[in-house]
């Protein structure tokens, strides 16, 4: 249905044409005439009526609704309200003495612009002298998508701590749901045809928790329960208590075969996704290498290494976007190489020293993430910042 409001000049011209077709007493209507003023008045009233009609229709047809009217349309169609902002997530590499403990409830990691991150679980540094930990931002919004090599502090600093940074950029931070994304969600609202599909359960969980992106069916686990993986929009793992609350809030939508006589779910288990670390081959033969993405390159004149590093990771994130990853798809090392080579500011990337140097199959129902990411100059030295200074974070302590 067309809800476009017609302009005042078009409506006035339409009135004048109808008027002239019904009388031969008037041959023209001049701009300053009484009839022109009458035409304008009628057109203005007609335009207001069309506008009010469009507003009412927009509540039922979200294609043309915007702003608060789109919120009203969602309410009338039973769609959960507009989603709020979400924070980002990434991995940090921590260099510390063996046995140093970092607690989720105690230690906060901070980037150079003051964006704070918390651990998703406790971590104890092993004999290698370093470890990778998954962190999520405490703040929300797109501002939490911070650059690589910018998380450099931890508070309070535990005894034995040496260095920390994020080799890969933080991703997943989004601002409040905009009209376009909200409109798509309204149009894909629950319908009777989807009630036996994963999409049905996905929409149920999304209405309960705005962080939910999609649901993956893992089948029956060793306990004989149907296991569903909850993938969040920003790659954050949900706490066990959050998974339990999510399942409890959704129990009324599950079939009776999954419930006991008290209405409690007995045949369903929710879990976090298993993340596949891109670049799993052993790189211990490299100076400061362990695993992950590791390569040498040179950049063009007047290019800034920090900007090039960020652009490379943005392009890689598009290729490895877990939000749209299909099950059992391979990560092609040649595509990774081409992405780096084609990034603005990159002059030369030797393929003989690009790792991983083999394709990797992401197992069924796992999702790719980058933990370790190292850029080296053509001599093999790890490049840390725009001045080419090396950082001890890239080398395990003895």
Tell me what the structure shows.
The chain is of the alpha+beta class and 398 residues long. The protein has 4 domains: 8-58; 89-165, no CATH class; 190-272, GMP Synthetase, Chain A, domain 3 (2-Layer Sandwich); 275-394, no CATH class. 26% of the residues lie in helices and 21% in strands. The chain is built from 8 helices and 19 strands. The strands form 7 sheets. A 6-stranded antiparallel beta sheet has the order 7-3-4-6-1-8, with no helix packed on it. A 3-stranded mixed beta sheet has the order 9-10-11, with helices on one face. The chain has a two-stranded antiparallel sheet with strand order 2-5. The relative contact order is 0.11.
Tally of structural domains: 4
Uncertain regions: pLDDT < 50 for 5+ in a row? Answer: 386-398
Radius of gyration computed on alpha carbons: 29 Å
Main sheet attributes: strand count, strand direction, barrel closure: 6 strands, antiparallel
Oligomer: single chain
Shape: extended
Q: pLDDT average, as an integer?
A: 83
**Count of extended strands:** 19
Order of helices and strands: HHHEEEEEEEEHHEEHEEEEHEHEEEE
Total number of helices: 8
Strand order of the largest sheet: 7-3-4-6-1-8
Strand content: 15-25%
């Amino acid at each position: 249905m067309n809800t476009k409001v017609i302009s005042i000049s078009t409506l006035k011209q339409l009135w004048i044409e109808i008027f002239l077709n019904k009388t031969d007493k008037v041959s023209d209507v001049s701009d300053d005439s009484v009839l022109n003023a009458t035409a304008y008045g009628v057109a203005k009233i007609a335009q207001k009526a069309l506008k009010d009609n469009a507003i009412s229709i927009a509540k039922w047809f979200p294609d043309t609704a915007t702003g608060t009217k789109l919120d009203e349309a969602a309410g009338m169609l039973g769609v959960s309200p507009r989603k709020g902002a979400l924070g980002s997530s990434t991995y940090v590499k921590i260099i510390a003495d063996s046995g140093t403990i970092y607690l989720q409830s105690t230690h906060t990691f901070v980037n150079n612009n003051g964006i704070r991150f918390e651990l998703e679980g406790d971590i104890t540094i092993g004999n290698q002298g370093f470890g990778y930990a998954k962190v999520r931002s405490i703040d929300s919004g797109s501002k939490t998508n911070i650059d690589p090599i910018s998380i450099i502090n931890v508070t309070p600093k535990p005894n034995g701590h040496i260095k920390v940074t994020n080799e890969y950029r933080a991703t997943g931070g989004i601002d409040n749901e905009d009209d376009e994304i909200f409109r798509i969600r309204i149009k894909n609202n629950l319908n009777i045809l989807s009630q036996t599909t994963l999409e049905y359960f996905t929409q149920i969980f999304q209405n309960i928790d705005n962080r939910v992106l999609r649901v993956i069916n893992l089948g029956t686990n060793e306990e004989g329960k149907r296991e569903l993986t909850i993938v969040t929009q920003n790659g954050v793992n949900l706490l066990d208590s959050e998974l339990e609350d999510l399942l409890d809030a959704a129990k009324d939508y599950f079939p009776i075969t999954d419930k006991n006589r008290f209405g409690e779910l007995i045949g369903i288990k929710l879990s976090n996704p298993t993340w596949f670390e891109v670049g799993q081959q052993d790189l211990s033969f490299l100076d400061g290498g362990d695993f992950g993405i590791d390569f040498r390159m040179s950049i063009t004149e007047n290019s800034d290494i920090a900007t090039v590093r960020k652009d490379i990771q943005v392009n890689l994130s598009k290729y490895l976007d877990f939000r749209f990853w299909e099950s059992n798809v391979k990560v092609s090392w040649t595509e990774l190489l081409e992405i780096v080579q084609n990034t603005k500011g990159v002059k030369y990337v030797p393929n003989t020293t690009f790792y991983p140097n083999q394709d990797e199959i992401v197992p069924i129902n796992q999702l790719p993430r980058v933990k370790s990411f190292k850029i080296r100059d053509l001599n093999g030295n790890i490049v840390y910042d725009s001045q080419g200074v090396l950082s001890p974070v890239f080398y395990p302590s003895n």
